[in-house]
User: Which sequence fits this backbone?
């Protein structure tokens, strides 16, 4: 599964710390997500999509 | 916060006990004693590393634990338990061939389990968890 977290984070000018605080996870989790080393839970995927004001499938691409 | 205090309390207790053992012994330390001492220092360093990681997370306003850290802990626990079974099997096999007291062998086994868990945690923490 790929994702567009880094692109969307840059679009909103958010740091990894900012995004981590907004979705209530540690910064390391955001780092792992951006490196595609971790597939998030549905809740975390939903929270991240909500921060970016997008749909889950626009942020997380299932292949 | 309670967990952080507990980590540092246990670490301090282990260090004090090891220090007492190290300084109270009159005999010269053997290779096995030095090895045990080294492993204890390694385990304590790991606990301190984990404690400081939690502390820095808390300072940044992040949760001390989240879904990824819990998953890593769960996987490291299960993998290290599986590997530890083989460690105890090896200890059981070699215990008849080496001349150490039972409590020394059990102590070494417990320390070995701690080291195995530390290594598993480090490997999983750096390689990540995909498709689970």
Assistant:
């Amino acid at each position: 599964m790929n994702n567009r977290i880094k692109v969307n984070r840059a679009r909103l000018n958010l740091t990894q710390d900012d995004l981590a605080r907004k979705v209530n996870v540690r910064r390391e989790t955001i780092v792992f997500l951006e490196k595609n080393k971790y597939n998030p839970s549905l809740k975390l995927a939903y929270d991240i999509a909500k921060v970016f004001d997008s749909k889950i499938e626009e942020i997380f691409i299932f292949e | 916060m309670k967990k952080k205090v507990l980590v540092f309390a246990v670490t301090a207790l282990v260090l004090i006990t090891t220090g007492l053992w190290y300084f109270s012994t009159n005999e010269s330390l053997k290779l096995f004693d030095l090895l045990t001492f080294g492993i204890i220092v390694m385990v304590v360093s790991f606990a301190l590393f984990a404690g400081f990681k939690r502390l820095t997370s808390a300072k940044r306003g992040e949760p001390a634990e989240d879904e990824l850290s819990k998953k890593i802990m769960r996987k490291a626990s299960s993998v290290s338990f599986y590997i530890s079974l083989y460690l105890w099997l090896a200890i059981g096999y070699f215990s008849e061939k080496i001349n150490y007291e039972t409590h020394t062998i059990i102590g070494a086994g417990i320390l070995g389990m701690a080291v195995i868990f530390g290594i598993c945690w480090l490997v999983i923490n750096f390689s990540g968890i995909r498709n689970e």
